[in-house]
Design brief:
- By secondary structure, this protein is α/β, with parallel strands linked by helices.
- The chain folds into 2 domains: 195 residues, 2-enoyl-CoA Hydratase, Chain A, domain 1 (Alpha-Beta Complex); 47 residues, Lyase 2-enoyl-coa Hydratase, Chain  A, domain 2 (Orthogonal Bundle), CATH 1.10.12.
- It contains 11 helices and 10 strands.
- Helix 1 packs parallel to helix 3 and helix 9 packs antiparallel against helix 10.
- The longest helix is centred in the N-terminal third of the chain and has 17 residues.
- The protein is globular and about 60 Å long.
Length: 259
């Protein structure tokens, strides 16, 4: 059995991260959180990787939450403990890489927040989502109270957080929490196919799209449109843009170099 932690596989400009704590339904303990932080710090300097996939070991859980025993034992240092996790998930959300959550089971509490920190969420049909912390007398603290309403609206977000209700994969798709639902057996095939499409595109264009969307969400529309043009200018005047346009005209596959 592999040691608990985060398994890392790299291939074709894609990095697969597997939270490997299956016996605990892949709950996020301090060790795993620090490892995720280390990995994403390192990936920022990895020009050969463009897409990151995050999933959980086994077939029951993506990540079933944060480690409740660690939160309890933090005592008066609980806020500082959660703040560290908040910062780590913010690092994932702000990563220059395109991050895809392959949700293969329970995504509850911190696990749901980890999925929310990703750019795209693809769920297996057995996946379940929720932020049930209020039932334990606490609340989401890894960004869930802010990220969830931005995806599904404040009323629905409050409904889930206050009641502890879990959404099925189909419900999560209908509410806009996930982008696609597929069979359990085909989940990784679907996600790898999507990652391959993204990884084959121009890296500057891919990063530009992500940056334009993320920056624009926090701006009034007119400012966001100006920001789009500024980012477009950087992408459109790149060597990759010349290569991509030339390749299309010449009916050949482009060779992007990220410049």
């Amino acid at each position: 059995m592999a040691e608990e932690g985060v398994l890392v596989e790299k291939a074709d400009r894609t990095v697969l991260l597997t939270v490997n704590r299956e016996a605990a339904l892949n709950a996020l303990n301090d060790r795993i959180m620090l490892r995720l932080d280390e990995i994403f710090r390192t990936l920022e300097d990895d020009e050969d990787s463009l897409v990151v996939i995050i999933t959980g070991a086994g077939s029951k859980a993506f990540v079933a939450g944060a480690d409740v025993l660690e939160i309890k034992s933090a005592g008066s240092g609980r806020t500082a403990f959660i703040t560290k996790g908040h910062q780590i998930l913010s690092r994932i959300r702000r990563s220059s890489k395109i991050v895809i959550a392959a949700v293969n089971g329970y995504a509850l509490g911190g696990g749901c927040e980890l999925a929310l920190a990703c750019d795209i969420r693809i769920a297996a049909e057995n996946a379940k989502f929720g932020l049930p912390e209020a039932a334990l007398g606490v609340m989401a603290g890894y960004g869930g109270t802010q990220l969830l309403p931005r995806l599904i609206g404040p009323g629905r977000a409050k409904y889930l957080m206050l009641s502890g209700t879990m959404l099925t994969a189909a419900e999560a798709f209908a509410w806009g929490l996930v982008e696609k639902v597929c069979g359990r057996e085909t989940l990784m095939e679907e996600v790898r196919s999507l990652a391959g499409k993204i990884a084959s595109a121009g890296p500057l264009a891919v990063r530009g799209c992500k940056r334009a969307v993320d920056v624009g969400l926090d701006l009034p529309l007119e400012e966001a449109l100006r920001s789009e043009l500024e980012i477009y200018d950087q992408v459109a005047n790149s060597l990759d843009a010349e290569e991509g346009l030339s390749a299309f005209i010449e009916k050949r596959k482009p060779v992007f170099r990220g410049t």
